[in-house]
Specification:
The protein is an alpha+beta fold.
């Protein structure tokens, strides 16, 4: 390794001066939080850990140094402080006793998210993920270091607000990237002026990705919600999130950008919605832009703009035209240029205008001839029997039939299938907006979707189909439920077998106190007879039982024993 690590500043990874100081002013002797990795720790035998850059409920972001490529990086560690602890000597992360299952599930979600995002490392407007490392009983996502400032700071440095033409030019490329991410199944959930960064070229980059838990209130870990930007559904664990969640956040960022005013928090708007329209705060803002932002920030998901494509179309809707849909397949910058050029009108010289005003007599003669011909045809339709063309009624039917056949024979008219997944059946069925499709609804139990929510469509989103095409939509009946069996007073083996047979996901929590009878369940989190969802791994069902002494290394059925911590965990399904 060419760079000597002892000469690197752990605050910015720049080389220290001859006095061992750095221009950034970072003091390596300042203590960090006890749950953070000590500076100069090494992850995956490759990445040197520096100062803490950011902390949220899901983990910690450090300034780091890639010893192999000798370059600065960001290191994002999965470290949910609410359910995990760190060994100060080894740096190892361990879940809080009794929360091992939650920790493992969330860590898997974290790994899967950043591993998938690594496939988009060459996508414009995203911070590229360069590596994923498993170490210290947790996961680390490594991001390329790019010199940026937050969009919030960028906005403040430019007077606190922008004009609509400036915002349009800034955000169109980012909208294109968001559409691409949504099309590949990603929902950000944390878009705000802090998770949008601005590079040296003035381009917007999206960062701050996290699992759904860190952006949902009352979840297993501490939520990191942004007041004014997080959507209403993020304040309730039972509400459904999707593309529309990002639509709300982006619209809120535009609201702040165009008015200089922070939107009212969605949590407050759920009880009393008094959000002012942007045009009330800036009378120079086009009405269609103001309306588009308000539609995208509606508290009700059913009433809100559902996709970035729809939001962009409303923003760019011409006030002098009925056209509302635009081709968003081009990059945002090219699209913005195209729409701008459509508004330009060529300047005509006076001589050109005079020539246009001259009467084209030859053209007038043609018009007279056409008018006479139309009059003659009209006479035939009025009195068809005069020339033996049959009755008036027969002629009308024949004409209609010919038109119908002509329309069918063209057969070139296709329409794109919208995304129905995540929408309520009641908002789709009978909606004139979807009258060009033949919709068939089928109901099934689905533990991952609330009752009445569409979870599958037979024709994929954005597929081009002919008008009238049949689309089968599967609607959730919610999770199938069974009565919770009586567990207390029975042995752990008996309860485990019955819960497994019923398909109930559960976690058995041991208690080593001598007041509880060994291997007998003494408490259950859901009362006997209460309905409980089956097949849903997210259902919180706990049973508590008396365990063996800590020095007894025997393991109950289906369990695992950790000799260091003395924990037993038994989980069904």
């Amino acid at each position: 390794m060419l760079t000597e690590e002892r000469y690197l500043c752990m605050g910015c990874m720049s080389r220290l001066d001859e006095n061992g100081k750095c221009h950034c002013g970072y003091d390596e002797n300042e203590p960090e939080e006890e749950f953070c990795l000590p500076v100069r720790s090494v992850v995956g035998e490759r990445y040197l850990v520096g100062r803490v850059s950011k902390i949220n409920g899901e983990g910690i972001i450090y300034i780091g140094f890639d010893r192999e490529n000798e370059e600065k990086v960001f290191i994002h560690e999965f470290m949910p402080q609410k359910i995990a602890r760190r060994n100060e000597l080894t740096g190892e992360v361990a879940p809080v006793p009794g929360l091992e299952a939650e920790y493992k599930t969330l860590m898997t979600d974290f790994f899967d998210l950043f591993d998938a995002l690594r496939n988009f490392r060459h996508t414009v407007n995203l911070f590229p993920i360069s590596d994923i490392v498993r170490d210290k009983n947790t996961v680390y996502a490594v991001t390329k270091f790019i010199k940026t400032i937050s969009y919030g700071d960028y906005l403040a440095h430019n007077g606190g607000e922008f004009t609509w033409p400036q915002v349009k030019k800034l955000f169109m490329p980012l909208f294109t990237t968001l559409t691409y991410l949504h099309g590949n199944g990603f929902v950000h959930r944390g878009i705000s002026p802090e998770s949008i960064r601005v590079n040296a070229k003035g381009q917007l980059l999206l960062c701050g990705f996290g699992t759904a838990s860190v952006y949902t209130k009352n979840s297993t870990i501490d939520a990191s919600l942004s007041a004014g930007y997080s959507a209403p559904e993020q304040y309730s664990e039972s509400s459904w999130q999707g593309e529309w969640t990002d639509v709300y956040a982006v619209a809120a960022v535009l609201y702040k950008s165009l008015t200089g005013t922070l939107p009212v928090s969605a949590d407050l708007r759920r009880s009393a919605d008094n959000l002012c329209a942007p045009e009330e705060l800036d009378h120079n803002l086009p009405s269609n832009v103001s309306d588009a932002i308000m539609n995208a920030m509606r508290v009700s998901v059913e009433d809100r703009t559902k996709s970035i494509d729809e939001f962009t179309a409303e923003l760019l809707e011409s006030t002098s035209s009925n056209t509302k849909h635009y081709d968003l397949k081009t990059d945002g910058e090219d699209f913005f240029k195209k729409v701008s050029e459509e508004t330009k009108k060529p300047v005509e010289h006076e001589e050109t205008r005079r020539r246009k005003r001259r009467v084209p007599w030859g053209f007038v003669a043609c018009l007279v001839f056409v008018a006479l011909l139309i009059g003659f045809v009209a006479f035939l339709f009025r009195f068809p029997e005069t020339l033996g063309f049959g009755s008036r009624h027969e002629s009308s039917e024949s004409s209609t039939s010919t038109e119908d056949i002509s329309d069918v024979e063209q057969g070139d008219y296709t329409i794109a299938v919208p995304n129905f997944v995540g929408r309520k059946r009641e908002n789709v069925e009978g909606n004139s907006q979807y009258s060009q499709f033949t919709l068939v609804f089928e109901e099934e139990h689905n533990p991952s979707y609330t009752e009445g929510m569409i979870f599958e469509q037979s024709v994929n989103y954005r597929t081009q189909v002919e008008e009238g095409a049949q689309i089968v939509l599967k609607v959730s009946l919610g999770p199938e439920t069974v009565p919770m069996p009586l567990c207390t007073g029975r042995t752990l083996e008996e309860v485990t077998a019955e819960l497994n047979a019923a398909g109930i996901s559960f976690q058995a929590v041991p208690n080593f106190s001598t007041e509880y009878e060994y291997n007998v369940v003494y408490e259950q989190s859901i009362a006997a007879g209460e309905p409980v969802a089956i097949g849903n791994t997210m259902t919180k069902v706990y049973i508590y039982y008396g365990a063996q002494e800590r020095n007894d290394t025997s393991v109950s059925i289906g369990g695992s024993y950790d000799d260091d911590e003395g924990k037993i965990v038994i989980g069904g399904h």
